[in-house]
Design a protein that fits this description.
Length: 329
C-alpha cells in the first residue's frame, strides 16, 4: 500500500448513516433482535436505499480516483451488526461500487471505541447514543439528521465535486468563546473576550483533525494543477459561522496557526445560515447547534455535533436576556 492507514484520511461510518435502514429498524423496534436478524438474512440480496451521508461518502471516495498512486482517503464501516446481519450492508456497498473493504462488526455493541484503531478523523452515525459517547471519550463524531437524499451522478462536472461546510465554534474550534457568552448571555462580553484574545489561537474542537486533513489534501490538488493547468479541483471547503466583526479575527488567527484555510468563509452575524447553504450546496454540513441545522426543503445533509456548552442543559437566563441570542452576533 502506498499510503498505510495511519497516513490516510479515514472516515468511519455506521450503516445507519450510509444507507436507509428505516424498514429493518422498524422490525427491530417492533419485533426484537431475533426478528431483525431473520429479516436481514432473508433480505441479504435486497439492495438498501441511499442514506443521508451516501452522497458525501461517494464523493469522498472519489478523491482516490484522482490520486490513484497515493489513494489518500479511506472509509471503514463501523457497525452494530453482526457479520451475518451485516452481509446485506456489505452487498449494498458492492452494488453501488463503493470502495469500502474494511469493516468492524460488534454485534449489538457501540463501535466507536475502535475509531483510534482505524485512525478515523470522523465517525458518522444516526445513533445519537453512539455519537455522544464517542464525543465524551474525546473522539470525533457527528449525528446525521434525517433529510431527503439527492445524489447526482458524477459527470466530470459538479457531480464529481465534493463540498464540505463547517461551523466554527464547537466544531472546528473548542467551545471556549461560547462558554464565555453562556456565562451571562452577554454579547458585549463575548466580543470583549475575543478582542482580548485575538492573538491566541483556539484549542482544536472535535472535528479539527478532519478539517485540517481536508484542507491539507487540497495541496495535492494544487500540485496536480501545477502539473496540469487543465486539472479541475474537486474539493471545496467552507466555514459558515454566526460570528461577525470583531470576533472574526480570532478565526483567522486560529486557522493561520494551524497552517490551513477554507476556500470560502462566511461571517454571518446571526443571519440565517440556510441563505448561504442553499447557494454553496454542501454534500455535508457540520454544526454544534440544532437551531442552525435547517435547510430549504431538507435536502442538504446535516450533521449535529453534540459537543460542548451549547449541548448542555441551559442555566436559567438572567433577567432581560434576549431569547435566541447568538454568542457570535
Amino acid at each position: 500500500m502506498a499510503y498505510p492507514i495511519e497516513n490516510k484520511l479515514v472516515i468511519g461510518i455506521a450503516s445507519s448513516a450510509l444507507f436507509d435502514l428505516t424498514e429493518s429498524h422498524r422490525v427491530y423496534l417492533e419485533q426484537g433482535a431475533e426478528a431483525y436478524r431473520t429479516y436481514q438474512e432473508q433480505h441479504h440480496d435486497s439492495v438498501l436505499g441511499k442514506g443521508v451521508a451516501f452522497p458525501f461518502i461517494r464523493r469522498f471516495l472519489g478523491i482516490n480516483q484522482h490520486f490513484a498512486r497515493q489513494a489518500p482517503v479511506e472509509v471503514v464501516l463501523l457497525s452494530r451488526n453482526s457479520p451475518e446481519t451485516g452481509l446485506r450492508v456489505m452487498r449494498s456497498i458492492a452494488h453501488y461500487g463503493l470502495d469500502i473493504s474494511r469493516a468492524c462488526f460488534v454485534t449489538g455493541q457501540s463501535p466507536y471505541t475502535y475509531l483510534p484503531a482505524f485512525n478515523a478523523a470522523l465517525f458518522l452515525s444516526a445513533n445519537e447514543d453512539d455519537v455522544r459517547m464517542a464525543l465524551a471519550a474525546g473522539l470525533p463524531a457527528g449525528l446525521v439528521l434525517p433529510s431527503r437524499t439527492e445524489d447526482e451522478e458524477p459527470d466530470g462536472g459538479d457531480g464529481a465535486e465534493l463540498r464540505v461546510a463547517f461551523d466554527f465554534d464547537g466544531v472546528i474550534a473548542d467551545d471556549e468563546s461560547e462558554t464565555v457568552f453562556k456565562r451571562n448571555n452577554d454579547v458585549a462580553e463575548f466580543h470583549a473576550h475575543e478582542r482580548a484574545h485575538v492573538a491566541v489561537p483556539h484549542q482544536p474542537g472535535p472535528l479539527a483533525d478532519l478539517f485540517q486533513k481536508l484542507a491539507r489534501m487540497q495541496r495535492l490538488e494544487e500540485r496536480a494543477q501545477r502539473r496540469d493547468p487543465a486539472y479541475r479541483k474537486i474539493l471545496r471547503i467552507a466555514i459558515i459561522t454566526a460570528r461577525n466583526a470583531p470576533s472574526h479575527e480570532r478565526v483567522v488567527t486560529t486557522l493561520k496557526s494551524w497552517g490551513v484555510s477554507a476556500n470560502e468563509t462566511f461571517f454571518l452575524g446571526g443571519m440565517d445560515k440556510a441563505r448561504v447553504l442553499r447557494i454553496f450546496k454542501p454534500h455535508i454540513f457540520f454544526d454544534d447547534q440544532l437551531s442552525h441545522l435547517k435547510s430549504a426543503g431538507g435536502t442538504i445533509p446535516m450533521v449535529h455535533v453534540p459537543f460542548g456548552v451549547a449541548n448542555r442543559p441551559a442555566p436559567a437566563k438572567p433577567k432581560g436576556a434576549e431569547p435566541g441570542s447568538d454568542p457570535r452576533v
